[in-house]
Specification:
Elements: E1 7-10, H1 14-29, E2 48-54, E3 57-66, E4 72-79, H2 88-102, E5 107-113, H3 117-122, E6 126-127, E7 132-134, E8 137-145
Parallel strand pairs: 4-5
Antiparallel strand pairs: 1-2, 2-3, 3-4, 5-8, 6-8, 7-8
């Protein structure tokens, strides 16, 4: 795949936001048998949403919000299965880190599925704390000092 064909940018309108939610559900919740709507939470409107677009299709997405303790929370990193392993997730996270730096956030954290720890560690994140169970899967908090 030509990586230059991928565009990483902020969501521009409500239509794109709804398409992002559907893409997020397809990747993160549908495989767990969870209904549409479970891919959203009460923090959506106070967050920054990035999308990866290829040929007018949202193939990846990620969210950044600022926690009360001034830590950036990376959440809902999702790349469609047929596009995984091609660097799209890495591009999304790097763009998110740049936004967090521009906002003056000292740290970004994510709650990563255990099978994704290596991905986050390659980007400089460090696992901390105990493993937690979320949606029936083991997760680990990972942190990146900016």
């Amino acid at each position: 795949m030509d990586k230059k064909a991928i565009q990483i940018r902020l969501v521009h309108n409500e239509s794109e936001q709804q398409a992002l939610y559907f893409q997020r559900w397809l990747v993160l919740r549908s495989p767990l048998g969870l209904p549409q709507g479970t891919e959203q939470d009460e923090y959506e409107h106070q967050s920054v949403h990035l999308i990866a677009i290829l040929d007018d299709q949202i193939v990846g997405s990620v969210r950044l919000r600022t926690l009360a303790n001034n830590i950036g929370s990376l959440a809902y990193l999702a790349v469609l299965p047929q596009f995984q392993g091609q660097g799209i997730g890495t591009q999304l996270v790097k763009h998110l880190i740049k936004i967090a730096q521009d906002q003056g956030l000292p740290t970004v954290r994510a709650m990563a599925r255990k099978e994704m720890l290596g991905f986050y560690q390659k980007l400089g994140f460090e696992p901390k704390g105990d493993e937690v169970e979320f949606l029936g899967k083991p997760h680990q908090f990972v942190y990146l000092q900016l």
